[in-house]
Amino acid sequence: DSGVTQTPKHLITATGQRVTLRCSPRSGDLSVYWYQQSLDQGLQFLIQYYNGEERAKGNILERFSAQQFPDLHSELNLSSLELGDSALYFCASSVGLGRADTQYFGPGTRLTVL
Amino acid sequence: AQSVTQLDSHVSVSEGTPVLLRCNYSSSYSPSLFWYVQHPNKGLQLLLKYTSAATLVKGINGFEAEFKKSETSFHLTKPSAHMSDAAEYFCVVTGEGSGNTGKLIFGQGTTLQVKP
Q1: pLDDT-derived band of residue B100, with 50, 70 and 90 as boundaries?
Q2: Do B94 and A99 touch (CB under 8 A)?
């Protein structure tokens, strides 16, 4: 158990809908990262927050947004969902910002868009 | 731009025989490199990491990897495979440039099959 929790575990929804994925980092970690894992794209970095502020952005669609709250938990919002958004979404956390910091991954949220 | 290439999408070994999973990277900076493992329907677990200290890195469950700058490689090895090692393995490099150091760039993964 990495200490990173994600809810829900599974999510099934329809095209055009909006969903929110939640992540609680390990105790003491200030950075939160979101990744998407799909069969065609593999594992891709979406976005990083550090202590409430956005620090890095990857291949995140404009329909997707995220935020990190004062208690350091994070939410990833996915809107106007398309079939291609079906994927496993991982959250990770680390103590700081450095490239040597280990990122600890949560169990993921499996999103199915029908 | 930085990238990671895992040279084998699938590796099959017999239990008790050595494991070799190959990874080449491309980076303008001295990178940090990681190997993560993903068991079916599970999250990603860190096996080991290289952060410019010793070039031979020991990880969990008997795995180790050697950083070879001249060959831009970071191959993962284990002397003797166990059935529980069957999983997907990812070679990972950190991003470059200010603002990207936290970004992890994943290889496409290598599926390790262990036969009894």
Answers
A1: low
A2: yes
